[in-house]
Design brief:
Helices cover about 55% and strands about 0% of the residues. It is built from 4 helices and no strands.
Length: about 100
């Protein structure tokens, strides 16, 4: 099992998810990190996005909703990889309207 402390950059996420999920997460991060007045997404939150993308495709139309969820729930970063998976599950429920 990978230790979350070893995740230092977005490229490290590649080891934890499928190539398509990694690409989808990078597309989201490219969109997010270009926004004005928005800090770059921490690696742990990027991992949440990658785990979500590993379960279901992330359409660009969902990007603002994903950002809203992260803004509302991103104050405390997950402490483990399993915590990132759980946050990805919460995000999936949020996007499905099952909050």
């Amino acid at each position: 099992m990978e230790d979350i402390q070893k995740l230092k950059s977005y490229a490290d996420l590649r080891r934890l998810v499928a190539p398509d999920a990694f690409a989808a997460a990078m597309n989201y991060l490219a969109w997010h990190n270009r926004l004005k007045m928005t800090a770059m997404l921490p690696v742990r939150q990027a991992l949440v996005i990658a785990f979500l993308a590993d379960r279901k495709p992330i359409d660009q139309m969902l990007f603002p909703s994903v950002k809203t969820f992260l803004d509302e729930n991103g104050k405390s970063l997950p402490a483990s990889i399993d915590g990132c998976r759980l946050r990805a599950d919460e995000l999936a429920r949020f996007l499905a309207g099952q909050t």
